[in-house]
């Protein structure tokens, strides 16, 4: 299976890109959100991929993070959700938004994706709610694409460049850290994921300590 591609972006279509990997062109279908985040033609690019193989079809789908790729795989497991609907949901919400919507049971947010009706949206939330904690915990793994240069694409034997300085924690990484902290405090995966997702939705720029405190307030007994 082809799990990742690194090369030059050769061409950008309405729903796909053509990535040249050392002379071999791969057509990779992506969500609108992912397409918008990719660099321009001629630039170095790296995407995680999932290969869909059917009797009459073979297509690659591209993602900017492992969490996005995992949500695509899980969404495709829901009856009534195909690749087009999965990309529509990811394009509308992004992987963090999908985690938040499913963890909090917000099927209306899922329904906002093009071509997804209320019954399908409710089924997505019901079928995948228990999966949200695991995917949220992936937030620190492949949360953002590393910077790659033309040399990385053209000269495989060149000495590796020094790693760039660590970027600020992404939203997915922050949620993953908060989720881990709540799990260590004894909260169950589903209730912890729901609280973290709700807290992140109310304060998307919160750092890990603030997110943990906000989630703990939500989990505190009422009355």
Tell me the strand order in the biggest sheet: 1-2-3-5-4
Strand content: 15-25%
Largest sheet: 5 strands, mixed, barrel
N→C terminal distance? 53 Å
Helices and strands, in N-to-C order? EEEHEEHHHHHHHHH
CATH superfamily of the domain at 4-64: Nucleic acid-binding proteins
**Rg over alpha carbons:** 19 Å
The helix tally amounts to: 10
What's the mean pLDDT score? 83
Number of strands: 5
The residue fraction in helices comes out at 40-55%
* CATH C-level class of the domain at 4-64: Mainly Beta
The class by helix and strand makeup works out as alpha+beta
> How is the CATH topology of the domain at 4-64 named?
OB fold (Dihydrolipoamide Acetyltransferase, E2P)
Pfam family, one: RuvA_N
Family: Belongs to the RuvA family.
Region (Disordered): 155-174
Region (Domain III): 169-223
Textual characterization of the structure:
- There is one protein chain.
- With 223 residues, the chain is of the alpha+beta class.
- Among the domains are: 4-64, OB fold (Dihydrolipoamide Acetyltransferase, E2P); 70-129, 5' to 3' exonuclease, C-terminal subdomain (DNA polymerase, domain 1), CATH 1.10.150.
- The chain contains 10 helices and 5 strands.
- It has a 5-stranded mixed beta barrel with strand order 1-2-3-5-4.
- Helix 8 (171-184) crosses helix 10 (208-219) and helix 9 (189-202) crosses helix 10 (208-219).
- The radius of gyration is 19 Å and the shape is globular.
- It starts with a strand and ends with a helix.
- Mean pLDDT is 83; it is low at 149-169.
């Amino acid at each position: 299976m082809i799990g990742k591609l690194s090369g030059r972006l050769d061409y950008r279509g309405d729903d796909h890109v053509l990535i040249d990997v050392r002379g071999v062109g791969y057509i990779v279908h992506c969500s609108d959100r992912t397409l918008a985040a990719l660099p321009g033609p001629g630039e170095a690019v790296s995407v995680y991929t999932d290969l869909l193989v059917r009797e009459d079809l073979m297509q690659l789908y591209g993602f900017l993070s492992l969490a996005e790729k995992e949500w695509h795989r899980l969404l495709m497991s829901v009856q009534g959700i195909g690749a087009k609907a999965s990309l529509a949901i990811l394009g509308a919400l992004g992987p963090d938004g999908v985690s938040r919507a499913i963890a909090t049971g917000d099927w209306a947010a899922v329904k906002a994706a093009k071509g997804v009706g209320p019954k399908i949206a409710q089924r997505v939330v019901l079928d995948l709610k228990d999966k949200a904690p695991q995917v949220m915990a992936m937030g620190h793994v492949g949360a953002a694409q590393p910077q790659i240069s033309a040399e990385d694409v053209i000269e495989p034997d060149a000495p590796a460049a020094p790693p760039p300085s660590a970027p600020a924690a992404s939203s997915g990484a922050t949620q993953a850290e908060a989720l881990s902290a709540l799990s260590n405090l004894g909260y169950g995966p589903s209730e912890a994921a729901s609280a973290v997702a709700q807290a992140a939705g109310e304060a998307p720029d919160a750092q890990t300590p603030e997110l943990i405190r906000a989630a703990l307030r939500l989990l505190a007994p009422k009355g």
